[in-house]
């Protein structure tokens, strides 16, 4: 599966998280080096694992951290949360999850960021 095959909401969330204050620009370059993704979905969440090309350059220090603070909510105020994981200095995966009994349809959701979108170590 290619990165362009994932739902627009997930793709937009990835880009938004990468543009958050304090996020190293090198991660956006790594996104351009994604050669494939593996997307798995459960009743309450989605994982999008990134497979990077051998030419992807890691962040110095092989950092492990998460980029979070982005949600998508519906008219009822409920929805999903997005967390982008960096492992060993490389983009690793996007997690999309809900606290609801099941993942809501993306068509009814709108991205909403908290004032604290950014890195968590």
Topology:
Layout: H1 8-18, H2 26-31, E1 34-41, E2 45-52, E3 65-73, E4 79-87, E5 90-97, E6 110-120
Antiparallel strand pairs: 1-2, 2-5, 3-4, 3-6, 4-5
**Widest sheet: strand ordering:** 1-2-5-4-3-6
**Structural class estimated from helices and strands:** mainly beta
How much helix is in the residues?
10-25%
* Topology order in helix (H) and strand (E) letters: HHEEEEEE
Share of β-strand residues: 35-45%
Low-confidence stretches: none
Distance between the termini: 30 Å
3D architecture notes:
With 121 residues, the chain is mainly β. 14% of the residues lie in helices and 44% in strands. The chain has two helices and six strands. It has a six-stranded antiparallel beta sheet. The longest helix has 11 residues.
Give the key terms.
6 strands; six-stranded antiparallel beta sheet; 2 helices; 121 residues; mainly beta
Put the structure in a nutshell:
With 121 residues, this protein is mainly beta. It has 2 helices and 6 strands. It has helices at residues 8-18, 26-31; strands spanning 34-41, 45-52, 65-73, 79-87, 90-97, 110-120.
């Amino acid at each position: 599966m290619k990165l362009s095959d994932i739902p627009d909401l997930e793709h937009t969330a990835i880009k938004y998280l990468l543009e958050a204050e304090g996020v190293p620009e090198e991660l956006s370059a790594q996104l351009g080096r994604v050669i494939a993704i593996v997307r798995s979905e459960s009743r309450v969440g989605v994982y999008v694992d990134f497979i990077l090309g051998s030419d992807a350059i890691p962040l110095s220090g092989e950092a492990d951290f998460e980029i979070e603070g982005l949600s998508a909510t519906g008219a009822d105020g409920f929805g999903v949360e997005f967390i982008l994981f960096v492992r060993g200095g490389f983009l690793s995966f996007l997690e999309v999850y809900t606290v609801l009994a099941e993942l809501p349809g993306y068509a009814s959701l709108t991205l909403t960021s908290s004032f604290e979108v950014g890195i968590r170590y």
